[in-house]
């Protein structure tokens, strides 16, 4: 009994220690967004920084650029990764290790090397650096993540579903749109969200491929931090935390509703 109590106490301690390690910095960042002096926790609270952020255009344009790039790159990466997974899926267990390693290579190579190689590639073919090159760079980097997510999703799919649909007279295109696609939507959503997060947060690849006329939110934050600390960054971080939390809660509630409907039926 005593050993069980000690084990439960240790598990509880490790759980709260992990949660504190992950979320205390975020909680402090939220508090800083409302402090009169962000470096002095006893300076009192204010909403001036949030108001200044809403009235300023300095960070909203980079945020919009990051959102557009993230959505476009995630969509392209999801399409490419899914097509690759569907094409290689039936042969995934017999593919040579060298081919799997080649597909995994963009994940393993350091981002600084990836960014430099993409920059040289774009310059070789005389691409004008800008939003298009950043989208293509992010998509090429994220497609590998989507591929491995979709490979696992397709492995869970009953292979006899397509055969049954074919026996019932369905054409290959109908099998994909009406049988395969509805069953891999969770993987598609997961791959898209992961690709969007990777693209939105990326700094190094954006730094190499954006050129002089485009600024994403990570690049803007980096430039501001080089000049000096700006309290508006805390306010922007607060906005992003709220948006991310709202997105997670919406997806979680939809998943819970879907499970409730399935179990209730």
What does this structure look like?
With 265 residues, the protein is mainly α. The protein has helices at residues 2-32, 48-55, 60-88, 97-108, 111-124, 131-155, 160-167, 172-201, 204-209, 217-227, 231-264. Helix content is 78%, strand content 0%. The mean pLDDT is 81. It starts with a helix and ends with a helix. The longest helix has 34 residues, at 231-264. The protein is built from eleven helices and no strands. The chain folds into two domains: 2-48, no CATH class; 59-260, MetI-like (MetI-like fold).
Helix content: over 70%
CATH architecture type of the largest domain: Orthogonal Bundle
Largest sheet: none
Question: What is the highest CATH level, the class of the largest domain?
Answer: Mainly Alpha
> Radius of gyration, rounded?
23 Å
Helix-strand makeup class: mainly alpha
The named CATH superfamily of the largest domain? MetI-like
**Proportion in β-strands:** under 5%
> CA-to-CA gap between the ends?
42 Å
The CATH topology of the largest domain = MetI-like fold
Give average pLDDT, whole number: 81
What is the oligomer described by this structure?
Answer: single chain
How would you describe the shape?
globular
Poorly predicted spans: none
Give a count of the beta strands, DSSP E runs of length 2 or more.
0
DSSP helix count? 11
- Output the helix-strand order: HHHHHHHHHHH
Number of individual domains: 2
């Amino acid at each position: 009994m005593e050993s069980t109590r000690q084990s439960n106490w240790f598990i509880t301690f490790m759980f709260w220690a992990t949660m504190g390690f992950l979320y205390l910095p975020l909680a402090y960042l939220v508090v800083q967004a409302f402090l009169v002096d962000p470096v002095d926790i006893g300076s009192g609270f204010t909403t001036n920084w949030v108001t200044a952020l809403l009235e300023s255009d300095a960070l909203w344009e980079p945020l919009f650029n990051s959102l557009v790039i993230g959505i476009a790159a995630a969509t392209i990466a999801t399409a490419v990764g899914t097509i690759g997974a569907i094409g290689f899926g039936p042969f995934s267990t017999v593919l040579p290790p060298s081919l799997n390693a080649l597909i995994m290579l963009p994940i393993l190579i350091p981002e600084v090397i990836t960014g430099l190689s993409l920059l040289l590639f774009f310059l070789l073919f005389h691409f004008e650096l800008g939003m298009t090159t950043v989208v293509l760079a992010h998509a090429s980097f994220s497609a590998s993540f989507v591929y491995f997510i979709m490979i696992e999703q397709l492995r869970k799919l009953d292979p006899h579903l397509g055969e049954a649909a074919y026996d019932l007279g369905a054409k290959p295109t109908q099998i994909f749109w009406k049988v395969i696609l509805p069953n891999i939507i969770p993987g598609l959503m997961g791959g898209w969200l992961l690709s969007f997060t990777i693209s939105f947060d990326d700094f190094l690849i954006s730094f190499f491929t954006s050129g002089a006329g485009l600024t994403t939110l990570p690049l803007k934050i980096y430039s501001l931090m080089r000049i000096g600390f700006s309290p508006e960054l805390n306010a922007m971080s607060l906005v992003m935390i709220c948006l991310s939390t709202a997105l997670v809660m919406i997806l979680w509630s939809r998943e819970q509703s879907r499970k409730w409907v399935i179990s209730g039926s």
